[in-house]
Amino acid sequence: MAKAKIPRKSTWIDMTAMTDVAFLLLTFFMLATKFKPDEPVDVTTPSSVAEIKLPETGVVQITIDGEDRVFFGIEGQPIRADLLKRIGTKKGITFSEDEIKTFSLTNTFGIPINEIKGYLGLDIGAQKNFEQKGIPTDSLNNELAEWIVEARRAAQSQGTVAVIAIRGDQNASYPIIRRVIETLQEQNVNRFNLITNQEGEEK
Amino acid sequence: MADIEGGGGGGHKKGKKVRGKKMSTRVDFTPMVDLGFLLITFFMLTTSMNQPTTMEINMPIKEDLPPEDQSKIKASQAITILLTKDDKIVYYFIDEVTGEPMTPVVANFGANGIRKQLILENRRRNAAVDSIPIYREQFRFNQITEEEYKKNVSRIKAFKDGLIVVIKADDDAKYKNLVDILDEMQITNIGRYAIVDITPVELELLKGTQL
To answer: Is B177 exposed, middle or buried (0-12, 13-18, 19+ CB in 10 A)?
Structure first.
């Protein structure tokens, strides 16, 4: 009996379909993506069952990291530029156009006002290595309060209402949180948001 | 690349007319797919899809009201929750007759800790909380509108004889504890709670409980 000959088949695989899928996904991710803002601190927010989504615009974010440093951030480049000008006028510091531009690209910062000019003068590499001390919140020199006041004014002049959100690290200690909340209350901000991670309803 | 020359094999026979070799019109897509997936991976890793969720809190307006304007609550309605180090909770009630704090109890976070107690106490004072899950189910199956659902829930939560939770934290508490306890308020459907500064008496009390 003749041996059955197995025909040698081509191993060529048609990649077209795979390419289609790959590029479809690629397009999706490219369109849906919103880059993670470059933040000077890593914060792990506690989780909660809250389901309210944070609005996308006009958020003033007060970040508190695990070492109790306070950072401040506001959405929107024009608002940020305006904010720096206002703070400068109040504190008698003049900022150059370049410095305002650098500041408007800074998402979150935790630098006392008197060090801001020095920070903005650095190039990007050096800015990353700059040790951010956090914004002072003590009652004698409550710079956080000034940032909040001016941020609300700046947002208002741009036609948005600032939504204030606290983004605290789960290991931040309570006294600093209380200090931040007190500061907000002194500004008559009695309604604000705590940013959390979402978790399932019942553990 | 992705193919191994199959079939064919034999060479040309001599004497035959040299014909232009028919080139395959197939293009090798492998590098393109490689590139595609590389970019997908990049975008998947850099993207931040989930929008963070938030918890809304309302703090009372900070001004000193004259005592006659302050709304009085019954002492028996309130539970005071003290947050302290190592994720521990101490809670106590106030005795209605004597006005003295009752023996404090140490509890934990989680389903079997403070939540059980809160649900129990809240239900005892405000039996209507049990109908919140029913409303929620009705809303889920589109039997009532969202507006109706929200209206009913806030009506039940605002019941004036319901449990009132006073949240206080000492300096050793973490931010996580605060969020967790606010979360319990939401889970247990307690509508009336407040974050208040701790008093020296309560700090003493915390020391006395020996955690």
So the answer is: buried
Across the beta sheet with B192-195, what order do the strands follow?
B105-107, B88-93, B78-84, B164-169, B192-195
The β-bridge partners of A165 are: A61, A193
The answer to whether the Cβ–Cβ distance between B52 and A32 falls below 8 Å is: no
Provide the pLDDT for residue A1.
60
- Cβ of A50 and B183 within 8 Å? yes
pTM of the model: 0.71
**pLDDT tens figures, A49-80:** 777 777 777 788 888 888 888 888 888 788 88
The strand pairing partners of B167, in sequence order, are B81, B195
Comparing CB atoms, the residue among B56, B183, B195 nearest residue A49 is: B183
> For B54-69, what is each residue's pLDDT tens digit?
777 777 766 665 555 5
Query: Is 0.90 exceeded by the ipTM?
Result: no
Taking Cα atoms as reference points, which of A86, A64, A68 lies closest to residue A147? A86
